[in-house]
Specification:
about 240 residues; alpha/beta
Length: about 240
């Protein structure tokens, strides 16, 4: 599951190592282009729709791997049907706000609305430059190339509004109930998400939270081989 502004081919460096010489089946789901998996589906319905999609491709053991927004969506799928998933690898994920933190939710709603308006109205080059200059992306070795022709701006804006972190329930209860099925990955240079991982480990005994060396928030692009190694271990 790719992130916001992600593409299916973002996973190629991971896939080519895991599939070669095996009968494994891997699917890089471009949810923005799949029926019933785009942001027309609210978060509280999305997991159910995705699991119906995944069930049609189900294997003996199913592992869901999500990066950033894709990891948040993966948590929705795991919550809707824990029995379908053998394991979830959640990369640079955000567990969400505490239910009582209305101020944080309001601030996030306002921030995501500003971004949605930018993606609707500003030139592609300008909004992409602003997006990549966010502090959370600092320290990543690789900035993925993103071309306007590969996206529908209206869908990106809709995703920012509908799938805003402000609309996501606090997923800590899910992590606690499914702790044995979860691997939580952050880049070792990603200060914000490392702090979140540290607090989750203190709060949730047994949570497997790993920090990937020589990676920041964009772990998928900085260190794809580390993801390969972790998924290979789970498959074995």
């Amino acid at each position: 599951m790719h992130g916001f502004l992600g593409l299916s081919e973002d996973w190629n460096p991971v896939f080519e190592k895991i599939v070669k010489g095996t009968d494994r089946k891997l699917y890089a789901v471009h949810y923005f282009k799949e029926n019933f998996l785009g942001p027309d589906e609210p978060l509280n319905k999305w997991g159910e729709s995705f699991n119906e999609f995944a069930l049609a491709k189900s294997h003996k053991r199913n592992i869901i791997v999500g990066y950033s927004l894709g990891a948040r969506l993966a948590m929705q799928a795991l919550e809707q049907s824990p029995s379908l998933w053998t394991h979830a690898v959640l990369i640079s994920a955000n567990v969400g706000f505490a239910d009582a933190d209305e101020k944080a939710r309001e601030e996030r709603t306002e921030n995501d609305e500003k971004w949605a308006e930018r993606f609707e109205a500003e030139s592609w080059a300008a909004v992409l430059k602003q997006w990549n200059s966010q502090a959370v992306f600092a320290g990543s070795a690789k900035e993925p190339q993103r071309l306007e022709k590969d996206y529908q701006r209206s869908i990106l804006s809709q995703a920012l509004r509908e799938w805003s972190l402000a609309n996501q329930p606090d997923m800590r209860p899910l992590l606690k109930s499914q702790v044995k099925k979860i691997t939580w990955l952050t880049g070792a240079s990603d200060k914000k998400f490392n702090a979140l991982a540290d607090s989750l480990q203190k709060e949730i005994p047994g949570l497997r939270a790993l920090k990937i060396p020589q990676a920041s928030h964009r772990v998928l692009f900085d260190q794809p081989q580390s993801i390969v190694k972790i998924v290979e271990e789970l498959l074995k």
